[in-house]
Specification:
The chain contains ten helices and eight strands. It is an alpha/beta fold.
């Protein structure tokens, strides 16, 4: 099937209230254009420089999501246009985003990344760090960021019970956080291999790349 057909097929299987982020990292402008031509406008990138180049070349109505780990010194390159930053895992990163957003007279939407996987390589806050952050004076003074939800990645494993447990933990943390930040609505969890379980466990946003674009290009 073509990229367009893959995209339509996946969208057909998703509940209406679940947002699909088409993960376009390493993909060419022409491949992204094929997805865009089906009417899809939400794309996820994990390298800021690559996202900037695509933003400059693609239509203006695209929402660019930064889904990779963010280095503070790179925030300035995307502050003008990024729609949502998924992987915010520290107050210092939030402060940098707030500062750069202010320079562009914008409020940048962010998700707080929570570490739910057993793998130590994944980034994210634990439950205590999350609680400390959302109750801190520093956090509440920031006017140019908007926390719209949480994000997390499950362990890369064939053990679906473990994946389900990790997603369930994130949903529990989301519900707890919502009592402090009642406006949050996004729970970003689930990728090509596990998004169906994530949706069953309450995900409202899934990040799917290989099932749309085919195997990842070497980068």
């Amino acid at each position: 099937m073509s990229i367009g057909e893959n995209l339509k097929h996946i969208k057909h299987t998703l509940p209406e209230d679940v947002t699909l982020v088409a993960v376009s990292k390493t993909k060419s402008i022409s491949e992204i254009k094929e997805a865009y031509d089906t009417g899809h406008t939400v794309f996820g990138e994990n390298k800021i420089q690559e996202m900037v180049q695509k933003w400059e070349s693609m239509p203006e109505d695209i929402q660019w999501h930064m889904i990779g780990h963010v280095q503070r010194n790179k925030v300035k390159y995307m502050a003008e246009f990024v729609s949502l930053i998924h992987g915010v895992d520290s107050v210092r990163l939030l402060q940098e985003i707030d500062k750069r957003a202010q320079q562009h007279d914008r409020v940048i939407e962010c998700l707080l990344q929570i570490h739910i996987a057993e793998e130590t390589t994944k980034f994210g806050l634990d439950a205590d760090e999350l609680n400390e952050l959302i109750h801190s004076d520093t956090f509440h003074k920031m006017k140019n960021i908007a926390i719209t939800g949480l994000m997390g990645m499950a362990t890369f494993t064939d053990d679906t019970d473990q994946v389900r447990r990790e997603f369930r933990l994130l949903k529990t943390l989301f519900d707890t956080t919502q009592k402090v930040l009642p406006h949050i609505s996004v729970l970003s969890m689930g990728m090509s291999g596990d998004y169906k379980i994530a949706i069953e466990e309450g995900s409202t946003m899934v990040r799917i790349g290989s099932s749309i674009f085919g195997a990842r290009n070497a980068h």
